UniProtKB/TrEMBL annotation:
Transmembrane segments: none
One function term, GO molecular function aspect: agmatinase activity
Catalysed reaction equations from the record: agmatine + H2O = urea + putrescine
Protein name: Agmatinase
């Protein structure tokens, strides 16, 4: 995929026109080929861009405006429908290019499997990488119905790649008993149900380290984010998720990339979820992308 080509679709509000001059790159990963319940997250990136026009450009939380950060919207990666292996190869290749240009990658999914190739690319550049994962689900399966390429497997895959003690999951409230047992045995950090307070305890331990943050929108309670493929009752509020993003921004860790996944507009009749996702991305940009 070539950069600085005209992108015919909508772009995220205040997107900078030049890839070369930008500090960060926003990109979509429109894939939902492996979901186990409801498809539709492949339409998430486009709709998040469309509703971003309604955002205020100023963040009261961070006292920062979008014009203070140069970010380039590269559009959606043109993934081949129904081909997960080729899709994840294309995503990894794309992120390799972004990192080679010394840009901050900010991805929008798509199902959660799309985070796996991104984290692979991040690990190649940052061998001491740590992962912060916010989600309703463990995503620690080896396979789903015999298929290892599944949206229920990306965190297990990255644990095996970088070591489970370097992976920190928050807000988890759903998973197989065997997944929780495995995490306990290998020393992976899982904080059930809550995000903000356990996150605050972990952040000092990650000070100075490069960290990739992956957020599944279903970490939010369905009352706050109904537009997702696998809703799960008992989640956190949008206010807590925003506070968690800000806690990371004010910590001493070095966020080197991030994504927000599993937004499915088809189940989002009020557009509550896409508007929340758009605001979350604004805060991720303003909180985590630093000026060069």
């Amino acid at each position: 995929m070539k950069f600085d080509e005209a992108y015919s679709g909508n772009v995220f509000i205040k997107s900078h026109p030049s890839f070369e001059e930008s500090e960060a790159v926003i990109y979509g990963m429109p894939m939902d080929w492996t979901v186990s319940y409801r498809p539709g997250s492949r339409f998430g990136p486009a709709r998040i861009r469309e509703v971003s026009i309604g955002l205020e450009e100023y963040s009261l939380y961070l006292d920062r405006e979008l014009e203070e950060v140069k970010y380039y919207d590269a559009g959606d990666i043109p993934l081949p429908f129904g081909n997960p292996q080729k899709s994840i190869e294309m995503i990894e290749e794309f992120v390799d290019q972004v990192l080679a240009a010394d840009k901050f990658p900010l991805g929008m999914g798509g199902e959660h499997l799309v985070s796996w190739p991104v984290m692979k690319a991040m690990y190649k550049k940052y061998p001491d990488l740590a992962i912060i994962h916010m989600d309703a689900h463990t995503d620690l399966r080896d396979h789903y119905e015999g298929e290892p390429l599944s949206h229920s497997t990306p965190i297990k895959k990255v644990c095996e790649l970088i070591g489970p003690t370097n992976v920190y999951s928050f807000g988890i409230r759903s998973g197989m008993k065997e997944e929780f047992q495995w995490a306990k045995e290998v020393g992976m950090h899982i904080s059930p149900f809550e995000v903000l307070e356990p996150l605050k305890e972990v952040l000092p331990k990650l000070a100075g380290r490069p960290v990739y943050v992956t957020i599944d929108i279903d970490v939010l309670d369905p009352a706050h984010a109904p537009g997702t493929g696998t809703v799960d009752a008992g989640g956190i509020t949008s206010r807590e998720l925003l506070a968690s993003i800000h806690a990371i921004a004010k910590s001493d860790i070095k966020v080197v990339g991030c994504d927000l996944v599993e937004v499915a507009p088809i189940y989002d009749n009020s557009e509550q979820t896409v508007n929340t996702a758009s605001k979350l991305i604004r805060e991720m940009i303003l909180g985590w992308v630093q000026k060069k």
